[in-house]
Amino acid sequence: MTAAHPSLTTAEALLADGTTVELRPLGPDDHRAVLDLHAAGMSEESRRMRFFGVSRNAPAQAADRLCGPSRTGVLALGAWAGDELVGEADCELLDEPSRTAELALAVADRWHHRGVATLLLEHLVHAARAAGIRFFEADTLYGNQAVHQVFADLGLPVRRHHAQGEVRIRVPLDEGDEHYRSAVDERGRRADVASLAALLRPASVAVVGASRREGSVGGTVLAKIREGGFAGPLWAVNPHAREIGGERAYPSVSALPAVPDLAVLAVPAGAVPGVAEECGEAGVRALVVLTSGLGPQEAGRLIRACRRHSMRLVGPNSLGLAQTDPAVRLDAEFGGAFARPGTAGVAVQSGGVGIALLSRLTWLGIGVSSFVSLGDKYDVSGNDLLQWWEADGRTDLALLHLESFGSPRAFARTARRVTRTIPVLTVDAGRSTAGRRAAASHTAAAATPTVTREALFRQAGITATRSIDELVAAAALFHAQPLPAPRGAVAVVSNAGGIGILAADACAEAGLALPELPQGLAELLPAGASVRNPVDTTAAVTPVELTHLLRALEEEPAVDAILVCLVPTALGAATGEDPVRALVEGPARRRVPVVAVLLDQQVPVRYRSCADGGVLPAYSDAVAAARALVHARDRARRLAEPPSAPVAAPDCDRQAARSLVDGYLTAHPGGGWLDPLSTADLLAAYGLPLTTTVWVRDEQAAVAAADGLRGLGHDAKVALKAYWPGQVHKSAVGAVRTGLATDADVREAYREFTKRFGAELVGAVVQPMAAPGLELLAGVVQDRVFGPLVVLGLGGTATEVLADRVARLAPLSERDLTTMVTELRSAPLLFGRHGGAAVDLAAVRSVLTGLSLLAEDVAELVEADLNPVIVRPDGAVCVDVRVRLERRPSFDPYLRRLRRPAAAGPAFEEE
Ligand code: ADP
Ligand code: MG
Fold this sequence. Notes:
Layout: E1 11-14, E2 20-25, H1 31-39, H2 44-51, H3 58-67, E3 74-81, E4 84-95, E5 100-107, H4 116-130, E6 135-141, H5 145-154, E7 159-163, E8 166-172, H6 177-200, E9 205-208, H7 217-227, E10 234-237, E11 243-244, E12 247-250, E13 262-265, H8 272-282, E14 286-289, H9 296-308, E15 312-314, E16 320-323, E17 330-333, E18 341-348, H10 351-364, E19 368-373, H11 382-391, E20 397-401, H12 408-418, E21 424-427, H13 433-437, H14 442-450, H15 453-459, E22 463-465, H16 468-480, E23 490-494, H17 497-510, E24 535-536, H18 543-555, E25 561-566, H19 570-575, H20 580-584, E26 594-598, E27 605-609, E28 615-619, H21 622-640, H22 654-667, E29 672-673, H23 676-685, E30 694-696, H24 699-711, E31 718-723, E32 736-740, H25 743-757, E33 763-768, E34 774-783, E35 787-794, H26 799-802, E36 805-809, H27 814-823, H28 827-831, H29 841-857, E37 861-872, E38 875-878, E39 881-885
Parallel strand pairs: 5-6, 9-10, 9-13, 10-12, 13-14, 14-15, 18-19, 18-20, 20-21, 21-22, 23-24, 23-25, 25-26, 26-28
Antiparallel strand pairs: 1-2, 2-3, 3-4, 4-5, 6-8, 7-8, 11-12, 16-17, 16-19, 27-28, 29-39, 30-33, 31-32, 31-33, 34-35, 34-37, 35-36, 37-38, 37-39
The structure holds adenosine-5'-diphosphate and magnesium ion.
């Protein structure tokens, strides 16, 4: 088979109705399929629309055109459902100077109105952009509504030119980026939610591998689904039993009276792929695999069966899932008790954690909308569930306990959007530091100690807690109380002075402000009370007095939240004047959030019901209450921040970068560090200011290069740096010589390299000496959970010692460009507050912008380390850069595709 164009890749993706199709470049082997698509798959009318006047030969011509010997300038992509080619989109370069390509589309009649054309177009836009095509052009018949609609919906600007019953459509590919991106996003979200419906709202369910054996997983789940009152038909499949629990069992999925939407598999690992295939053949739409211990082969076969037959998959090694919607009532898990219906969406990786979390929520009184134990996450991930909850109309709080969330970039993007509507809380298990430590360069190592995972979660809008306890404590507050104002100033009230001081300390340490309170409040309280913050009411306070105080504090403009910390007193016990009455006999819903700390409470957190029917979270410990408040404040701050647009693309040469990266990875399939020349080209493509760098292979060339640089009017001095593949830190091993003034210096330095590095030495680079300035480090690293991060810090020799860095999730926003600089401890040096002149901040921003775009476009970029970037009042220049590439799935934010888990084996490689 001839090689397809490199910018065309194979992917599985979801159609609008949630069906999975495979997208593949078309080649000679597909001739028959293309012929069938155009001949049998399309009516005469469709063909007329497609080819303007039916020609008997049109299908054959199409097949020849797309599947004949491959020609440069033709990109052809097919969409396959199993073995059937259901649609095709192609473009062919028409006009070289304007980079215009003629576009053609065909979708089998049976597959109309399911988003096949749009999906194909999105992928073709991606490939065409990478191939440097700037316009699509298509001639359509005036009456071809369907095609016009496809273009109208695509999200890219469309220009129409009418002439003689035809409409010429012209689509510029490099305009209207943000709009196109949101259109793609929106389609992706809808398709994802549609595909999850069979899983989370199935109309019928089969349990495969249900057995009569007491305590068997399948038998337990079957019984739970039945007892949970599942609304639809439920079937048991077991070839060895005729009936289970008094109900008829069927020997196979194909023997069932109807096709179930969802099949829950509790069969031995070896049988999973076969059963999955059987389910797929039968038309099942979703699988939950409870079985654990699948080998790589079985894993690969399971995933392929799911993709081939368009089934979404939870697990393997899942504890199951639950849907509490009264219209569904599905309790398909073998963990704890059926969660009570409510508004919290819960997803966990490990079953044990799931049981613990569910029982804590149930005990507390927080109901669940849906619960999913994701297990080994071969397909459905945290990302999918976030989108489901965002759209299900029932969920207002998402709780996640996952080691990773799915495709990292998709996660960062989805989380940032979803958290604008619902709070998302997670336990940060901090597992990914090891992953980052594995990377070698400064930037990579730099990101580890100073950039906390908590900060990254915060950027994604997610509330990260350190334990399940903290998660539940925060959830209790989010669920029951309003958010504080973003300032988050807390009034602490207690009936015992010492306890109040401890609570105030806890708030201050959590980062909450404690404002001064008006002295007039003292009039509401017993003699001896103090109304500094913390307020000490004294033990003599009555419920009535406390009630008045709470009302006054609620109205106090300086107060954004109230923490009431109470100890039982002998006085209160004797008189029945327990101050807790002031809380429970008052309203739970006030202008500001209220939390109680009750020191005699036996459990970490519980709800206290109040007079208005609402609830107050009561904690046994002030530290837990303060942490919960700080999480609420952080969320309030984030919501108050206006969204900031991603940085705009300056003139970058994406095509040059793409072909450079593809070329390198073709030559080095295992990945590695780019050589100096390619590195320079890659930087140039993104407008990153690398100093003039001349590559030389011997002493004579080095001298000539140095002379040349001097001739260009550079400073008389040059730097010479030895190069060999895989080098790490050059100056530490004597591979950098700076300030070389004469030919003799250059000669001597080169000879020294030859002596020192011997056969290892491949060559050297010669650079002009940059004028001195402030040395910064800038770069990109990949995070296992969040995807690419852009890092900025103090560079040069001080890098390690001072560890002054900030990191942000890519893509950066305009605001990030500003705050990255201001958050550095060394910011005053950049702003020139310490005597020197301010550096060229616009140049720093442009370095960050270039890195953000590079990180976004080049998924293969494992790390980029620019150290130092020498910044001065008159500009910024990088004198040392290292870039490492690895073959990874191409990820384009414009591209919808399903994740391919590593578990599926290298043949089915990915993330
Ligand atoms: P490495 O980081 O691998 O040790 P560099 O190329 O960064 O090697 O060189 C080390 C230091 O030498 C830099 O941090 C910078 O201070 C100085 N240096 C290197 N090249 C130049 C140059 N072209 N102009 C000015 N200073 C340079
Ligand atoms: Mg360096």
